[in-house]
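Q: Here's a chain of 467 amino acids. Please give me its 3D structure as tokens.
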Amino acid sequence: MRVARSLSVVGVLMLFGVGTYLTRGSWSNTLKPKSVTQAQEEQTAPPIQEAKTLKMSEQARKNLGLVSKPAKPQAYWRTIEVPGEIVDRPGYSDRGVTSPVVGVVTEVHAFPGDTVKPGDRLFTLRLFSEYLQNTQSELFKATREIQLITEQHARLEGLVKAGGVPESRLIELDNQLRRQKALIQSYQQDLLTRGLNPDQIKSVADGTFVSTIEVVAPPVVDHAAKSSEIQPVAFHVTGSSIDGLAYEVQELNVELGQQVQAGQLLSTLANHQALFIEGHAFKREASFLARAAENNWPIRCSFAEDDHVDWPPFDQTLEIRHLANSINSETRTFNFFIPLVNQSRAYDKDNQTFIVWRFRPGQRVRLQVPVEELKNVLVLPSAAIVREGPEAYVFQQNGDLFNRLPVHVLHEDRLQTVLANDGSVKAGLYLAQSAAASLNRVLKAQAASGIRADVHVHADGTVHAAH
């Protein structure tokens, strides 16, 4: 029995030893003292600080087109943006040419696109008016009647002096002469209004009747005499100026051989020197526009598809002239109007001069109407600001380093952003004027890589912050 118990004890001890050996990996670490490194690892890691500085090489800055400028407090006008378009100015831009008489179009001298000056021929009309023929006939008769009365008056003067004829006879001839002169003046004026020139009227008085008349371009109304803001167009071709003013034939309203009535529209001439910018605003914006018009606040304008390279600088001050007092029933907007003085140049081709205008009716524009003046603020391009939720940031350049600074945005539009001058950005600091979103992405990428951009390693292996 004793031997059996001894054997069983020995077996238990052997099994315990084998188990202990096989499981030594799981319990051996519990018996060892913790190393300093392990103890430090078990401690709660401090929160990782968000990166605020990134490093950009000169080549990278050039690739992004980065430009930095010092921050300067200034005054800024808060604006609202209103769409609009360029339109002809009624009574200034277009002018219709009408037929002075009933006639048939026998020649057309100016076609759409041609440039004509006042007095240039537009049409030749063959007279088809019985009234005009009768007027010419009456003018010729009145002229001949004056000659007869004058001759008779000369013959009777001697007899009156001799007492053979009473003086009342001369008085009667004088009265007839005055009546005929009055008739001649009325006939001449009538023919002038019908399109005949003084030379033609003189030939009619001599017995040569006019069968055709020339319709010419009318004189341009010189609005500069009334308002200094309107200047008539003058052409400069190959260094020399063309005398006089000019029109462009915009539309031809008749055909060759067509019979026209007196007063019928023959063609439309255009001079786009004086135009309107027509803005389209909603009723809720009416108070802003009225205030800008009353105070003569200048309006900023962005012209769509404007090639400013080939034209002189546009330095005109734009102000609202008047506001429409009716609302469009379809768009629910009302219009306001800003005078615009156009720019032009001319070129020669096929012995003709053609006009090129910088601004054209139908061209779209964007208008920035001033609403409120903000003083002591910082103004940056919109591309200089990046947003992350409620936060907004700008980037200060310090050599190759760019520091991200939080800012308070007061106002922003499509082009500019206004920042509060609250000390977060000190005056004089150089701020990136564009590519803020790209800089923010690079900052996050550098932070994710674990490499801080604001430290550097010296040759002796020591690490220092940027200085």
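Q: Can you summarize the key feature?
A: The domain at 82-91+267-372 is CATH 2.40.30.170 (Elongation Factor Tu (Ef-tu); domain 3).
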